[in-house]
Amino acid sequence: MAAGEEGGQAGQIDRASEPAAVAARKKPQGWKCMPFIIANETFEKAASFGVAANLTTYLVKRFGIGQLQATNIGNIFFATLNFTPLLGAFISDSYLGRFKTLAYGCFATLLGILGVTLTASLPGLKPSICNQTSQLGGHCNSPSTLQLGVLYLSLGLLTIGGGAIRPCSLPFGVDQFDQTDEKSRKGLNSYYNWYYSTSTAALVFSMTVLIYIQTNISWAIGFGIPTVFMFFAIIIFFAGARFYVHVPPEGSLFTGIAQVFVASFKKRRLNLPCSRDISEQELMLYNPPTKGRRIFRLPLTSQFRFLNKGAIMRDGDINDDGSARNPWELCSIQQIEEAKCLIRIVPICFSGILCFVAMAQQFTFIVLQAFAMDCHLGPHFEIPAGSVTSISLIALTVFIPIYDQLMVPLVRKLTGLEGGITVLQRQGVGLAISPISMVVAGLVEHKRRDSALSNGGISSMTVLWLAPQLVLMGIAEAFNAVGQIEFYNKQFPEHMQTLAGSLLFCTIAGANYVSTALVNITTKVTARNGNTGWLTENINNGKLDYYYYFIAILGVLNLFYFLVCSHYYQYKVMSFHAEESIKTHAKEEAATEIEIVTSAPSK
């Protein structure tokens, strides 16, 4: 399928299993549940990000940890925090369900934030204060084993909580709407808007007000406020429990995918039905009604057709009730197409990693640059180093409505696409801007270092010199990250929505791990033979600008990789059976129109 033929939420409504499912489940309450879910997400986001956003500053300024070590700790923490949603999605869909997973995640996050607050409050859990002169000379006392142990345990609890909350929060809200009802679907679109708006407001609050309190007033108070926020989040979440619809877990998603490969391998010597028409071939393969609350079915496709052999029916493969006798020898078309979705998406997912490597610098080295610059805004106000990165978030927030209201209608007239450009093209634009931001970052760093060396270690340049690269990072994120979210939600089947919600975080996690590896490798390689490395404890002695240029080169190579992958990517195939059509809009700002068509029950 050509790139311009971008599909929406493909498939057909499965009426065969609908009556029993509707009768068995509680009627969704829609907007009655939203104040509780949105408030929980808003308070949780403000609380967790209020701790995470300023972590590098806290480790360097309050815990006396070296800059490179603090950078690696920050990268590993953010990487783990963003990788655990994949595990959380698996546990939610396979065993606990979204409500229980969210509940456990909220309590884990509360304990984690409380632990970090104690490291900033109790004398026995916080190192003695080290002034800047001693810190630069390397004479500060290192944190004790107990102090580091409590800190690392608290960060571990935060990653567990984030892994449970992030993939489940948005889909849990979706569960509260009846997607077979037109009025409810309109309410669902409003839910998406409110969800992202309040989440963004929470992030801005955390990166400005909370970071200012932490840096300029008190770390204990600055971490205590997120603790209170998280407590409110839990209270509000459980206050709405009587309204919630609880979708039971359907078993391991990954087991079903493994069964597809095993069944296809076992039947590799069999021949598919001799029919050139894929719709006729579908009628000859195993295609039972879907299970649980799933509404949409995926039609059979010809791509990766060797997997279709897993649905070939032999004598004795089917029980009297129509179920597969051995699921490792016979799989449904739905299972096979779900596996194909993953195969198609994974290469595209990898391309987002290096884009986020550039963005990851705003929470590590850019903060360290701000330490060595003039952070004053007027004679009486000083911008906290950790708040500088909020420029990227503000740029993202401002650019999205400009893109949606001005750019999309203009481009739509040229392309004829509802979203102006396809979701893959949107990601590609972000991947192109990302290396440009790194080139700008390198040029600014070269100028900053020269200024710092001529002024006793602190540059006379205002910290606002970092704004151009941060604005470019925000715009790159608006294209690539939001494009990824839209891409995953459109291209993943209904059964995989929790996994789709975790995949963006996994991409960010991969970027943090790659960033940590790049820091370590770059430090080791460039410091050989007694040379001064590019990355040093005192950034004024290194060549951070060279490191930025190196990331820019990797970004260009990654762009070419993405172009190859997107050229061969096939969007999820639509299946039309003209009985009725339903038009909805995707939740993102550049959404394309979706057409969902029902079909007759399977015989």
TrEMBL record:
<keyword id="KW-1133">Transmembrane helix</keyword>
<dbReference type="GO" id="GO:0022857">
    <property type="term" value="F:transmembrane transporter activity"/>
</dbReference>
<dbReference type="GO" id="GO:0016020">
    <property type="term" value="C:membrane"/>
</dbReference>
<feature type="transmembrane region" description="Helical">
    <location>
        <begin position="463"/>
        <end position="482"/>
    </location>
</feature>
<feature type="transmembrane region" description="Helical">
    <location>
        <begin position="345"/>
        <end position="371"/>
    </location>
</feature>
<keyword id="KW-0472">Membrane</keyword>
<comment type="similarity">
    <text>Belongs to the major facilitator superfamily. Proton-dependent oligopeptide transporter (POT/PTR) (TC 2.A.17) family.</text>
</comment>
<feature type="transmembrane region" description="Helical">
    <location>
        <begin position="146"/>
        <end position="165"/>
    </location>
</feature>
<feature type="transmembrane region" description="Helical">
    <location>
        <begin position="102"/>
        <end position="125"/>
    </location>
</feature>
<dbReference type="InterPro" id="IPR036259">
    <property type="entry name" value="MFS_trans_sf"/>
</dbReference>
<dbReference type="Pfam" id="PF00854">
    <property type="entry name" value="PTR2"/>
</dbReference>
<feature type="transmembrane region" description="Helical">
    <location>
        <begin position="194"/>
        <end position="213"/>
    </location>
</feature>
<protein>
    <submittedName>
        <fullName>Protein NRT1/ PTR FAMILY 2.12-like isoform X1</fullName>
    </submittedName>
</protein>
<feature type="transmembrane region" description="Helical">
    <location>
        <begin position="503"/>
        <end position="526"/>
    </location>
</feature>
<dbReference type="InterPro" id="IPR000109">
    <property type="entry name" value="POT_fam"/>
</dbReference>
<feature type="transmembrane region" description="Helical">
    <location>
        <begin position="383"/>
        <end position="403"/>
    </location>
</feature>
<feature type="transmembrane region" description="Helical">
    <location>
        <begin position="546"/>
        <end position="564"/>
    </location>
</feature>
<feature type="transmembrane region" description="Helical">
    <location>
        <begin position="220"/>
        <end position="241"/>
    </location>
</feature>
<feature type="transmembrane region" description="Helical">
    <location>
        <begin position="76"/>
        <end position="96"/>
    </location>
</feature>
<keyword id="KW-0812">Transmembrane</keyword>
